[in-house]
């Protein structure tokens, strides 16, 4: 049964997740990926230093009381936007993983539209030190101008916000063991995240397992979207949603952060959500690679101990949850 409490005006609900050993997860993920990629290597080992510029995160590891967090959801965006749904991510993260110690929060959501004066994607990479100071390595990606170019911009340390919907992996950012994945040359139809998630779902069935972390598309390109500014007409279907979204073929290197779950756990959870940033002007919501023969992935994932659900929409739907 979910524990719940009201903090301010937001309802927080919490449930434990099933936590298999990393070695067991390694075997399941390897089996799933082998069905979808020609070259696969999965092992359990110490996480590399994720502050290395190649990865670009603000803490070195993914360890320390890992939690999955979901705030809001697509029903606050569709069919029409609820502009009041702007959240202080720093405050929510601190409540989701209380106590002393540093915090790392990475994942996918809608960016703070008041900052950009337009709707935007949020690629979140936040560190909070023991004194409660926020270091923001997050980005927004927006559709800009008549030519609808993708523009990637850093979010300043002074802005702790997101809007509408958010999926984060939260931990102390500590070193420690993770599931380390390398795979290349996609031979199947599933995207990288879907392959991992469905492999876990097939094995664990009704048990809810959640993971989060980072993957890097090192070679090739990916089909990714960036939300245009808020639609003035209601969006009632996946077709209408996809006509509103702006899709791009984005070249590697793309660094994607996010979460995945095997089921909704009675909390109306989004099952997978990864957004990417890059050292060029590309960023957005990952769908799949577009170059199966060239595609090469490197990933570091950890298993979460519990899930925290904040401000769950009272009226829900399944549109926009790929």
TrEMBL record:
Signal peptide: none annotated. Keywords: Hydrolase, Metal-binding, Nucleus, Zinc. Residues 28-310 form the DUF1907 domain. GO terms for cellular component: nucleus. InterPro entries: C11orf54_DUF1907. Its main location: nucleus. One of its GO terms (molecular function) is hydrolase activity, acting on ester bonds. Pfam families: DUF1907. It is found in: Nucleus. PANTHER family: ESTER HYDROLASE C11ORF54, PTD012 PROTEIN. Monomer. This is Ester hydrolase C11orf54. It comes from Bactrocera latifrons (Malaysian fruit fly). The gene is CK054.
């Amino acid at each position: 049964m979910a524990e719940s409490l009201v903090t301010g005006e937001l309802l927080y609900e919490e449930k434990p997740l099933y936590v298999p050993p990393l070695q067991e997860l390694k075997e399941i993920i390897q089996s799933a990926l082998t069905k979808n990629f020609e070259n696969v290597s999965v092992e359990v080992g110490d996480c590399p230093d994720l502050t290395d510029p190649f990865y670009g995160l603000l803490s070195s590891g993914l360890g320390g009381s890992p939690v999955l967090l979901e705030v809001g959801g697509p029903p606050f965006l569709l069919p029409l936007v609820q502009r009041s749904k702007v959240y202080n991510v720093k405050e929510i993260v601190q409540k989701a993983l209380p106590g002393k110690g540093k915090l790392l929060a990475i994942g996918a959501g809608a960016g703070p539209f008041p900052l950009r004066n337009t709707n935007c994607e949020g690629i979140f990479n936040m560190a909070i030190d023991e004194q409660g100071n926020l270091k923001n390595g997050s980005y927004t990606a927006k559709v800009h101008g008549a030519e609808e170019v993708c523009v990637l911009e850093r979010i300043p340390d002074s802005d702790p916000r997101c809007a509408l919907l958010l999926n984060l992996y939260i931990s102390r950012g500590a070193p420690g063991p993770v599931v380390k994945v390398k795979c290349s040359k996609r031979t199947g139809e599933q995207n990288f995240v879907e392959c991992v998630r469905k492999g876990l779902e097939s094995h664990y069935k009704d048990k809810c397992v959640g993971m989060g972390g980072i993957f890097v598309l090192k070679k090739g390109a990916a089909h990714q979207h960036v939300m245009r500014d808020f639609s003035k007409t209601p969006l009632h279907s996946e077709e209408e949603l996809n006509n509103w979204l702006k899709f791009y073929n984005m070249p590697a290197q793309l660094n994607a952060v996010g979460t995945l779950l095997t089921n909704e756990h009675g909390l109306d959870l989004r099952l997978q959500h990864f957004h990417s940033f890059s050292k060029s002007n590309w960023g957005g919501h990952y769908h799949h690679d577009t170059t199966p023969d060239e595609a090469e992935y490197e990933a570091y994932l950890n298993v979460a101990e519990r899930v925290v659900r904040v401000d769950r929409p009272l009226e829900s739907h399944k549109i926009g949850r790929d």
